Fold these 2 entries.
Entry 1:
Amino acid sequence: AKKQGRNGFAFFDAQMRQATEQRMQLLKDLRIAIQKQQFELYFQPIVDMASQKAVKAEALIRWQHPGKGIISPAVFIPLAEETQLILEIGEFIFASACRTQKKLMSAKHQVQLSINVSPIQFSSKHSRLVDWKTHLDELSLNAEQFVIEITEGLMMNAQQRTQSRLNQLSKQGFALALDDFGTGYSSLAYLKQMDTDFIKIDKRFVDGIADSADDLALCEAMIMMAHQLGLKVIAEGIETEAQHKQLLAAGCDYGQGYYYAKPMPEKVYLDFMNNATYG
Ligand code: C2E
Ligand code: CA
Ligand code: CA
Ligand code: CA
């Protein structure tokens, strides 16, 4: 039995080492990716539920790895956050979204672009978030043309710097959205603390609404409460017509999900917008 245990331990040890090596390799690749600009923003339309016009879009980052193909942000964003590389990636995201906004304007599309901003970009001394408004001024863009998506993780243990940057962005005219609403702790308390414009109902609530009375009731309650607080609601991960209809009936303002459109490269997104049905 002793021998077996030792073998088991050796096996676990090898697994640990392999995981660490994979992480180190990914980090090495991530540094190269920044230098070689292997990132690209995809855009997923967000529709006005009543008219189904694509009046907003969320920018979602993709990493085109030369050997491994597209790597999901769910994999590399956490690593980028742990290593502060998110600060540089975050600047790329903003600059890139600005360029797309200019193209949308040239094509006469009025779209509010959502950008995901990491808590690190709020808390770090080295973050250039504070210069974004200046960059917009230089490009003749307005802060009102952008939504900053933040998660509840931002507000947990939020330091003074985070809170003041949040206030500053809001004062500058950026809209704020609380992402993955309802999945974290004390979501409601945070709503009071910050000047939110939108809440985004998480996909896991939307998933069940067609066949679970509880999930439908939860969505209805979130929508009602948001409206009473003067906020608009975006439902995420809408995949079926049934979900669309139920959320529309519940008074949800905006919808995002495969039912309407998947995230797409900028060029495809601009073509999508130029199509008379959506633009
Ligand atoms: P998120 O901000 O909650 O983004 C929504 C995710 O849901 C996206 O996954 C999107 O592709 C996916 N999605 C949208 N509609 C549907 C649907 O109908 N069905 C299903 N199954 N999925 C749907 P994605 O692009 O893989 O991003 C995953 C997460 O990575 C994001 O979650 C966000 O937390 C993070 N992320 C993505 N882009 C960025 C970025 O530019 N900056 C930062 N800081 N984080 C990002
Ligand atoms: Ca988001
Ligand atoms: Ca506002
Ligand atoms: Ca979300």
Note: The longest helix spans residues 2-36.
Entry 2:
Amino acid sequence: DPPFSDHLQEDELTPDQNGDFISSLPTAGFLSQYRGFWITTRSMQGVLSLQKHFQAQETDIQMMTPPKVGTTWLKAILFAIVNRKHNLDLQKHPLLTNNPHILVPYLDLHFYNQKEVPDLTFFPSPRLFSAHLPYTLLPTSVKHSTCKIVHLYRNPKDTFVSLWHFLKNNGRTTDSFEGTFDEFCQGVSSFGPYWDHVLNYWKESLEKPQKILCLRYEELKEQPSTHLKKIAEFLECPFSSEEETKGMINDILRLCSFDYLNKLEVNKSGTTHNMKTESLFRLGEVGDWVNYLTPQMSKKLDDIFKEKFHGTGLTC
Ligand code: A3P
């Protein structure tokens, strides 16, 4: 029998048994298959522990995104919106000296990847956390509390091209571009299948619009101030007319823009959670996929996503 077949549930595992459980999972390259999703193996310990131990607070804000859809950008935006009253002097803003992933930490990679259960109760409210977890893998307390979830998705072609560069730059694949593309189309990508990640949050957001906000990278790019207001309203900290008159929305957008963040010393070198920090800022544009995908590849993704998103109201 495989060691953890039907006999032992993951939530019964002791921390020492997690390693055995993780190595019993099917793998593909750097990924392990867990409950229908492909999770980066290095995140698995954190994911198991987070699922089991994380206790949501009513005022928490959880950013849940698939990788390469603009997570870094949204982290900067959410941090700036939520903490704007404490950071009126933009010349001293924490984003100037901290990578957005430090200000909005990954729960699995940052806190739950060790054996001890972290104490996160000392974080001032509202706590702003993130992970790449699909909806079905969220800790029960996140699903059941009144905490807010912000999800971001992006056109799958740009997501794939961004993922490819990221994997290459960080030595996370030995596969060819074509091989990685085929895997992506089969759903084998970190925290994928990508379409299931997007669809699950989308469907939940239709049922619980007060709890889950789904944003699209391309729309955020096209109408940034409209979306900033929408996010602030959703998080129940809307911009006052005084803040709007003072130009605070534009200030935050400028501070969080690709050009601005990309040029900061803190984002140019070093590593963040074992990722090259500079690899988080590549181009930051819509439509770069045309420079990489053949017409056949483009059609293949169109066909897959048209079928998966059919009748859902989602566009790819
Ligand atoms: P590209 O590779 O297409 O340039 P994630 O943060 O989820 O890893 O996503 C990375 C993608 O978001 C990269 O896309 C990156 O360049 C882009 N990005 C990073 N910061 C951004 C910003 N401030 N504004 C817009 N896009 C940004």
Note: The pocket of adenosine-3'-5'-diphosphate is lined by residues 67-73, 158, 162, 165, 256-258, 261, 280-284, 288 (CB under 6 Å).
